[in-house]
Amino acid sequence: MPLLTKLKFSGKVAGLYLRPSREGGFEKAPTGEVELTLDGPAGDCHTGQTRKSDSRTLTLYKRGLDIRNVRQLTLLSHEELQLIAYELGIKAVDPSWLGANVVFSGIRDLTFLPPSTRLQFPSGATIVVDMENYPCSQIAEVIGRHHPELQNKVVKKAMHKRGLTAWVEREGVIKAGDEVTIFIPQQRIYPHAL
């Protein structure tokens, strides 16, 4: 049995987004293509081999230490964004409001792809899923600027629909409209976790 299994369906790149600096807000701007390097998406503020430890890693490290950057990319699903909008009772949730780098369409339950899933693009560029990207106060604040009455509802309504974080395993260019092939790892539950 192969360690990685190619899924029988594929997805498409519905949108690409970058933000060169953390200054000036959380939202990212749309772009037609992105060059992926081993450091991450070229020209994006989350690019780098390392990042500072933060609230997500406090059980392991003090805040501000250099750690491996496995959060180079934020991956979202067009379908899950529609579900969030429906849950919030609004017409649409702009992917930039959630800090997207790549928005996919056609991948059912994207947020539930397991860690170590590989997503491969026609150029050969390949990204590896780190883990689910849980909703946070930053996205609530951004959506709250557009819909103030919803700010306190965003985190709950976006839970398990906010996508994934990922890192670059193989360099290459990805473009809007690209097909993406999905390879999932063998899965089993660690018996002592519960």
Number of helices: 3
- Look at the structure and give the CATH class: Mainly Beta
How much strand content do the residues show?
25-35%
Mean pLDDT: 94
Structural domain tally: 1
Question: Can you tell me the CATH superfamily?
Answer: PK beta-barrel domain-like
Helix/strand order:
EEEEEEEEHEEEHHEEE
Strand order of the largest sheet: 2-9-8-12-11-10-14
Shape: globular
Contiguous low-pLDDT stretches (5 residues minimum) are none
Largest sheet descriptor: 7 strands, mixed, barrel
CATH architecture: Beta Barrel
* CATH topology (fold) name: M1 Pyruvate Kinase, Domain 3
Number of separate strands: 14
Estimated structural class: alpha+beta
Give a quick rundown of the structure.
By secondary structure, the chain is α+β, with helices and mostly antiparallel strands.
Q: Which structural traits does this protein have?
A:
33% strand; 14 strands; alpha+beta; 194 residues; seven-stranded mixed beta barrel
Overview of the structural elements:
It is a single chain. With 194 residues, the chain is an alpha+beta fold. The chain has a single domain (4-185), classed as PK beta-barrel domain-like (M1 Pyruvate Kinase, Domain 3). 13% of the residues lie in helices and 33% in strands. The chain contains 3 helices and 14 strands. It has helices at residues 78-88, 137-146, 154-158; strands at residues 4-6, 11-18, 29-31, 33-37, 40-41, 50-52, 66-68, 73-77, 102-105, 118-120, 126-132, 164-170, 172-175, 179-185. A 7-stranded mixed barrel has the order 2-9-8-12-11-10-14. The protein has a 3-stranded antiparallel beta sheet with strand order 5-4-13, with no helix packed on it. Strand 10 (118-120) and strand 11 form a beta hairpin. It is globular. The model has no long low-confidence stretch (mean pLDDT 94).
